Amino acid sequence: MAETAAATASEKPAHFVLVHGIGGGAWCWYKIRTLMESSGYTVSCLDLTSAGIDPTDPNTVLALDHYNKPLLDFLSTLPVDEQVILVGHSAGGLSVTQASGKFPGKIRVAVYVAATMLKYGFRTDQDVKDGAPDLSGFGDVNDLTFGLGPDKPPTSTIIKQEFQRSIFYQMSPLEDSTLAAMLLKPGPVSALMTAKFAEEAGVERVRRVYIKTAQDRMVKPQQQDAMIARWPPGEVFTLDSDHSPFFSTPFLLFGLLVKVAASCG
Question: Known catalytic residues?
């Protein structure tokens, strides 16, 4: 009987925790969640503070600890013997890195999808060059809010709607970019750009996988390559996708995530 219980526990389906990027929300993952749940996996899609249906004003979210609290709270309440596959998109990579440092025993593998993967956060000019979007080639694309005053850095930002498809979704179905235009919200840019991580042994205990997006106009392929070179993950995969593979190549992204889960044993 004990052997049967142990076998059942070892065969428990993987639990994926999906984390959105700035301005997004749990809704970003609706295609991936459908594919995963239809295949028997457990899926948790979170809204970080001020994102999705969370009503918090993003201009009051000034630190990553505040922004990332829903993820950290979620991981802290997992059963002691449960591990998850933590997936972060875009700026959600900062949330994944912070969580990996704080809860290494809860994370079986951390997956960065077109994501900011900086071991120490934004500490140097090189970190900003590699990990922060440079959209100057598109013109004046950011709608900024200066919640602390006009002489202080911006507290929130959103890409102006007329630029969203060409930057985020140029390979995605029109229905998805239309949906996103209705749901995207200003994100707490101050909390993200001031994110810094201390040297923590725990973060190196977590296996990392990076999924590159070859046609990305937000986190450009050169930036992704630079972050991979500076902090090499265990595996790297590439999708011929825009910045939003959960819309443009959902079946391929799902396949890679299942492959990662299968490799966990």
Answer: 90, 216, 243
